[in-house]
Amino acid sequence: MPEAKNIGILLSGRGSNFVAIADNIDAGRIPGARIGVVISNRPEAPGIEIARRRGLDARVIPSKGKQREEHDREVVAVLREKQVELVCLAGYMRLLSAWFVQQFPNRVLNIHPALLPSFPGLEGQKQALEYGVKVSGCTVHFVDEQLDHGAIIVQKTVPVYDSDDEHTLADRILEQEHIAYSEAIKIVLEGNYEIVGRRVVRRPALKEVAFPPAM
Ligand code: GAR
């Protein structure tokens, strides 16, 4: 068996996406993956305490008062020390510097609680609700040098109900986030895809597998 690939999780808060990924790895649903390190830029993030309790290498690297790249260099040093091959931003509320992104080309993933390119930035769920869309969802994408912008790996949709407020909608989206992130990690670690322009195209193309061309 090839050695497991180390994932580095970066978070700033609650950590429910991290927990879903960790649970899926423990259940064998993302073969060949292990969590090498969990890093928070906020000492008080509940997610980092959960990581500690799960026996994972959990580090706090405070970002407060630091220049973006100065902080990123500290984070990348730990990711390298832990031989991390894939970086997953899981509610990491800090923009990465271009320098960071260049250290891990097409090896940093992010999850966003809206159907990009709609509603990037903060509070994607609230933006969607206020805009009046009838469908929203979540997006897992590669991170590039622009905010919430890189090639899309997985999207999941949810309905928006008239009775929704931003919390009920966020909860419905979060359930899908917990599925989508692990699916995306599996796709990326398996490596059976190509990035064509902005498109992440799986090999063999999924349509051919599902629907062989009629004779
Ligand atoms: C998630 O909803 C995630 O999509 C969002 O923060 C939440 C983190 O929750 N991320 C962003 O808005 C990034 N732009 P979690 O800490 O429970 O995983």
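^ glycinamide ribonucleotide complex. The chain has one domain: 5-202. Residues 11, 13-17, 47, 90-91, 111-113, 124, 174, 177 surround glycinamide ribonucleotide (CB under 6 Å).
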